[in-house]
């Protein structure tokens, strides 16, 4: 045990010493880059034919330090901009910091209250509107003082953060510092912060909104909006801690009048002569004429509340009541009392939609987080309702438990809709159909009912006709709105909204929907939407699922609340009582990057930039000239105006935007919309690459659970280079990625392997490329360059890393081990070192630049070197390597454990059989050289129709066919020749020393290769005859 512990300690000490060594190199290289201003990129003079590449990342919100999740997405831009620069483009990666919105102001105000009162305020305490039983769900949130300490703010400075501007002065510089330590290839001259603190950016956003208003895309209206009840402000996606993308859902609340409220609960006597209504939410008001009963959740409580401006009382769940308050249907006060749900079982209700009274029945599965917690029952058309009634009738123990009288089921199921497929009793028909469907044989009861509901709804709503009630004869689609309007007009229903699912604001409050009179961006306007959809069809998205996510968003995104009266930001230029929200001031700022360094001289725009233009001169005329080909202003010198315009026209459009996939449904779609509104189509974005979230060691990153790393913490723990490699390896798709400790530490070992190759040349070497393994490694290197280049071009960084780091080092290791008694080629060693460093530079530039300049002595930084080009190579070498490996395994398979064997023979065949020649002819005929593949369907058709093959042993030729179908796309069509193009015996004999080395440990001292049947009876003839072209057989015996 002690030996293991000592070994572990030694490994940890070695690891830490390597981390410390690398960190020293990395910061030295970072300083060199900064001193040489390597990443400051300007547009060339007009007339230059240089190509541009501009990549951007959604600026991070500045209420804390950057963390590994930020870095994962940032790394995609980092790797891309470095690769594109090496490919010869003027590559720009600008980076700014977002301070707009409510979170900073809310946090500052919360901190102020904590310091004034002397006790911690949990996030949920900030919600004035939520009742204690709802607020308690978020009590686990930390106080603001605790949060400030956790993110590294010195305790003596915390009181200064009651001023929101302190946050703007404090965190963005740390963002710059962290990113510089990471070695980001950012042009920091172009960085800025948002809000009206920055006069240049403030003017830019106001210009944008004046254009949107002129085009009719911004209007003031009263619309349902998701709001934070703690401050009565809209709570859009960036203001939420959960529930991004959630929209208001519109229900019709059916008012079901309790026939005898006091009989239900004596406390209703305090309501006097006022009517008491149970509220039930529905999306299908046209079906309310078919109610048979209503459902209540056992063991729950409902709030009894007073209607606003009406002599009525409502009974509903707490969540619903909060939304009713926000929509001004209910008085803002505590409930009159809380009603136990079990008291409603059997209670009679009436509504104008139906004849007679209906009663309350128990239903366990009701969600209190959807609707009111009271559910209507339409047994004719809702499969779950029908099944619920049938089950309850059969379930005597449940009926007795809740006091349900069997006589209460003596109601008629009224048929209200006729649909082409399911007739006038869709609930019954769809239940039977799904039960009989083999696809649902193993499905649960709940799954079957959900499928039946879907079928009944699709056919009934889309194709059905009303056969009962006031809208008899009308299509169901038409009757829905007619029924809703009628019920609301007669006072028997309420037009109601709630968030589709739970939304939690960053203040900790659960959000509600309110009807808010404010400014909206009219996303979804037909002609505007069409511009976006048409352009999006031309964009590169990298992942098909992300494209579909965008398309889905185009379908539902509509009016967006873009203003608020609380927080930080830019004032609406045409209504200055409002601030522009954080998702609306961050849509076209990618264009501002192109000129920000010319306008402002620091992050906050407190002084002019390179052009010396004062903020008061930066107005709509200026932006119209630079960005929209407007007239040239006369207040700014012509040469400065042209310089600004040249920067924009060279670097735009944005070549690619990297982002988390969660922003597809808001920011990224709005980015496209606003470009379509403001710019000429030639400046619309070219590509977007969205990734999943980052897990840390296979678990979700979480501060509270300690599974979390800031940028600084990761660099301190692993070094920059190991962090960057682990980020590249974490994943490239839209699924969640995984940063692992094992990868970071494994990367460190490989980096030092490369350092050792550089530092310690072999004592002997050859200045030539001559033998098979020399040529093979040279070919592998050429292929790896091509593979790495292709992977970088596709932004597939895990694949690029695999090729240039893992595969290349493995190839070098294999090459060294294959050279038994032969010195390595100095030419190949030099190639290996140089190309390893060049190929890895986009991912681990500090490491490669250290090796390039400090160890190899190059004067120019490696980040300024071009990306290497590959060279032609003989692809047959890879097949020959495989042939040798397979042959070695074939021999090894014949070596029996425990037996002394010393002689091996390999039997090689040079001719195909007639059947095999038929297969090859068919494969040659259907080989697609352009796409490097076979037309499998056509191949199999012809194979099955071939007369010769129809008489042959199918098992034999199918194995042959599958071998070539797999091998030809990988190694090349030379394999399809009627005579093998590789001399198998010669290849084996030329590499006999390699075989001998591999087999010596297993006692094999004699080895021969035969391409004809050997004489005598020394060898098993059966084994000899089993050999096929490129698939030799072998035998192993003991020869005295």
Automatic annotation (TrEMBL):
Q: For this UniProt record, give its keywords in alphabetical order, as a comma-separated list.
A: Aminoacyl-tRNA synthetase, ATP-binding, Ligase, Nucleotide-binding, Protein biosynthesis
UniProt keyword tRNA-binding, yes or no? no
Residues in Aminoacyl-tRNA synthetase class Ia domain copies: 29-125, 177-738
Q: Does Methyltransferase show up as a keyword for this record?
A: no
- SUPFAM superfamilies named in the record: Anticodon-binding domain of a subclass of class I aminoacyl-tRNA synthetases, Nucleotidylyl transferase, ValRS/IleRS/LeuRS editing domain
InterPro entries documented for this protein: aa-tRNA-synth_I_CS (IPR001412), aa-tRNA-synth_Ia (IPR002300), Leu-tRNA-synth_Ia_arc/euk (IPR004493), M/V/L/I-tRNA-synth_anticd-bd (IPR013155), Rossmann-like_a/b/a_fold (IPR014729), tRNAsynth_Ia_anticodon-bd (IPR009080), Val/Leu/Ile-tRNA-synth_edit (IPR009008)
Q: What is its EC number?
A: 6.1.1.4
Q: Name one GO biological process term.
A: leucyl-tRNA aminoacylation
All residue ranges annotated as the Methionyl/Valyl/Leucyl/Isoleucyl-tRNA synthetase anticodon-binding domain in the record: 774-874
Name the top EC class.
Answer: ligase
A Pfam family name for this chain? Answer: tRNA-synt_1
Protein name, entry field = leucine--tRNA ligase
